[in-house]
Specification:
2 copies of one chain form a homodimer.
Chain A (H helix, E strand, L loop, with lengths): L3 H6 L20 H9 L3 H6 L1 H15 L3 E3 L6 H6 L3 E4 L3 E4 L5 H4 L7 H4 L1 H13 L5 E7 L1 H10 L7 H9 L1 H25 L3 E6 L7 H22 L5 E5 L5 H9 L3 E3 L6 H7 L5 E6 L1 H6 L1 H14 L5 E5 L9 H11 L4
Helix pairs in contact in A: 2-4, 4-8, 8-11, 9-10, 9-11, 10-11, 11-12, 12-13, 16-17
């Protein structure tokens, strides 16, 4: 019998939804912090297959999730393209910004897979180590979100450089996006070849774009990536996450070809049932802050999500990544509640 | 003949929409920076009626907007309630956080109006100085958004303290919200008595809440405020801004009683026409980054917004506040384009 996550992503409805959590391997776990302390920089951790494997497996051992997600970062793609990327402790990622057509020249999508060898080695090791019933998810950032970091040189509130570029000079911005589409296809394809069974595309900053720009820079590149991957790996399901897209989730689902969508915390679930779950599997959407709080509010929210999405294919997850302040006991409570094991 | 903004907020469709911009008085204007340098702290600027009046009037003189919005800040309400609030240059607002039922005790809604006398004095001066055809808008933060600053002690990404409180102890969180409802009604009512002709409620962080919490902590307090204000000042239109609420804009419009909604940048306008503009006036929603970029992308976006929303009551505005990087010439271009004066 196929693994639970794969069955749901193929459109099957299960009485007990499979569960995994975005950023399930991370700082909220003491065993993660221990491994993290051994690695040098954050990227060193991503690029040491033994350590990346270990931290990916930790939450599987502790909580018995239905899926493991490769421990990595969306910024390994710009790093693989040849952009300088580093992580300042406590400050988030920094990149030497790419802001002009000339800055694009050195970025080489055909360099990505060679550069990211250790990532695929980790994928292989993780796959070999996982219990039979646990699915391995590979991932990448979607082009718009990765582009924001590349152009801004790090995190941003307003995305003024990235948006300035796409508004003022869409033709060269398109070159950047095309390089990202190509790099992302190569990177995800290599993950599949190394053992990833499902792929997720994170478009964390999708909500920053007005409708027309959303169509051009979120839907179009995602459709291109999904199309190419389906050509190469038709059996591998793809989950899209256009975080904060609101109503445009509908068009994203209708037009990109994804097999499933990850729902952010704010999406009303009645609408999700009517407009999204009819067409694809849905994944989500517990508030990470409810997981920090635990107790009755968390239990009520879990029950509501399970019940509302019970009529179709549903993967239980958060609406955004786990935050470091999360008590691990609350995660255990969550898994028990989703599985009705009290 | 009534002022253009008032006509549209009463439901009238005009061939040329009235225009004003969120944060139209601010750092992007050299004349603002000059006045700002004379005041001590940011709150000093808000509390010196002569200076607050001057910066409110600057963009009216320069661009001839159809409305002026009082220069002030949503955090004058916590300051009026007795919480310590200060602005660290370059770091955003800081507050001594309010996190427990005990912390709520000293907060006194009946102190707000006495404490904020200089704000209402500014309102009176501005109203007296404005040209006859220009409408004066007063404003406040909506309770949820103001509560995030009060509980977090400043800006936040995750709102873990505020959400932790409402998830773990909703009854005492409700006390905080009730104090905010009362303080907000008093503050807005005093602005009307001093000369404000329209009110706007800013719920900047509305998108952070899941649906059930959105209903309880965005829609309910807004409905309470609108209800009380309509009792006292039935002729004063109220614009709501539940930024990022997506689909929940519909319920917000149906249930709060606002006369108009301000649309964030990401809302698809076809849906707005069908679902919101049938019921209330709509305001928005040019991307502030398009205003920074200027040129063809901005002109196309303006034309699209004007055309799509032309069939009903529409106030031209941004989808979020002007950013400091905005060239003032682009604002002049925008006003000319909206009015078809080239």
């Amino acid at each position: 019998m196929a693994k639970k996550l794969l069955r749901v992503l193929a459109g099957e409805r299960l009485d007990t939804p499979p569960i995994w959590l975005m950023r399930q391997a991370g700082r909220y776990l003491p065993e993660y912090r221990e491994v993290r302390a051994k690695a040098g920089t954050f990227l060193d951790l991503c690029y040491q297959p033994e350590l990346a494997t270990e931290v990916t497996l930790q939450p599987i051992r502790r909580f018995g999730f239905d899926a493991a997600i490769l421990f990595s970062d969306i910024l390994v793609v710009p790093d693989g393209l040849g952009q300088q990327v580093w992580f300042q402790e406590g400050e988030g990622p920094k990149l030497t910004p790419v802001r002009t057509a000339a800055d694009l020249k050195p970025l080489a999508p055909d360099r990505v897979v060679a550069h990211l060898g250790p990532v695929y080695e980790a994928v292989g090791r993780i796959r070999a180590a996982l219990p039979d019933e646990v699915t391995l998810i590979g991932f990448a950032g979607a082009p718009w979100t990765v582009a924001t970091y590349m152009v801004e040189g790090g995190s941003s509130r307003d995305f003024l450089h990235a948006k300035g570029w796409l508004y003022r000079e869409p033709s060269s911005f398109r070159e950047l996006m095309q390089k990202l589409v190509e790099a992302t296809v190569r990177h995800l394809s290599a993950q599949v070849e190394a053992g990833a069974e499902v792929l997720q595309l994170f478009d964390t900053w999708a909500s920053a774009l007005p409708e027309a720009a959303f169509r051009e820079w979120v839907i179009e590149p995602t459709r291109a990536i999904v199309g190419e991957l389906k050509g190469k790996h038709p059996a591998v399901p793809i989950i899209g996450f256009p975080r904060g897209a609101g109503l445009l989730y509908r068009d994203y689902v209708a037009e990109t070809g994804v097999d499933a969508v990850s729902l952010d915390t704010s999406l009303p679930l009645g609408w999700v049932v009517d407009e999204l779950q009819q067409h694809v599997a849905v994944q989500g959407n517990l508030d990470p802050a409810a997981l920090v709080a635990g107790g009755k509010a968390m239990q009520d929210a879990i029950a509501n999500i399970k019940q509302t999405l019970a009529g179709g294919p549903h993967v239980f997850n958060l609406g955004h990544g786990i935050v470091p302040q999360t008590p691990p006991e609350h995660v255990a409570d969550l898994v028990a509640a989703v599985r009705d094991v009290r």
